[in-house]
Amino acid sequence: MRSFCVPDVPRTFSSGVGSLLAESPLFLAPNLTPRRLSYPELGQPLVCCGPPKILDSADTAEEEPIVYLEAAELWKQFHRYGTEMVITKSGRRMFPPLRARCAGMNRKAKYILLMDIVAADDCRYKFHNSRWMVAGKADPEMPKRIYIHPDSPATGEQWMSKVINFHKLKVTNNISDKHGFTILNSMHKYQPRFHIVKANDILKLPCSTFRTYVFAETQFIAVTAYQNDKITQLKIDNNPFAKGFRDMGNGRREKR
């Protein structure tokens, strides 16, 4: 049985446009709760829906959804130095925020938009001599949660008319979190993913066909305190809510 994973061969687009994964992932039926999905805990039975339905040409003739990353140039500035995202027990929003625009949808059909964050590799990292390097094998990951955009489901016309903002998604290192936040391991690298599902009801998600898009420039390393001073400065320069850094300095580095 396969888990919900990134296929090996993405279909690539020009800069700022999401790579559409060439194969829809197998989706394990999750526990459904309002506006979020969470996978069953270890020891609970998994219900496998089987391979997602493959759409025929009649279904796809009027649509070829494309996802564009907002603020792509800002993401690339962070990516150049190795983006870091602070995780806390109480949950922290990400900066830059994950925002996107969609095109190519069927205007009348309804869609559900989702996002999750998955491990980018099987390594653990450390920041040494002003650069990130592999420090060993990754720690076990907690069962992953999928964040459902609160406007879902909505018509293609509604989605394409606005910037789609996932800024309410929070990341945490609290393994006992009860708020639906995304649980990450510090000093591990992650890849956010956007998903588009053509469905008019959230309860239809477990056996629906997922179109999954990734942006390489949104990869980041989770930390409990910023490691790279260049990343700290970028946050200060671009995040209007980084007043604490301006007043109190760049914070304390994490020693691992």
Strand content: 25-35%
The backbone outline, from C-alpha atoms, is globular
Order of helices and strands: EEEEEEHEHEEEEEEEHEEEEEEHH
Write down the Rg.
18 Å
| Biggest pleated-sheet summary | 12 strands, mixed
- Could you tell me how far the N terminus lies from the C terminus, measured between alpha carbons in angstroms? 35 Å
Helix content: 10-25%
Secondary-structure-based class equals mainly beta
Number of helical elements: 5
pLDDT averaged residue by residue = 80
Number of strands: 20
Summarize the structure.
This protein is mainly β and 256 residues long. The protein is built from five helices and 20 strands.
Q: What does this molecule look like?
A:
With 256 residues, the protein is mainly β. The chain has helices at residues 57-60, 72-81, 156-160, 229-238, 243-248, and strands at residues 10-11, 19-21, 28-29, 31-33, 36-38, 47-48, 66-69, 84-86, 92-93, 99-103, 110-128, 131-137, 145-148, 154-155, 164-165, 170-172, 182-183, 188-198, 210-214, 220-223. The strands form 4 sheets. Strands 1, 2, 4, 5, 8, 11, 12, 13, 14, 18, 19 and 20 form a 12-stranded mixed β-sheet that branches. Strands 7-10-15 form a 3-stranded antiparallel β-sheet. The chain is globular.
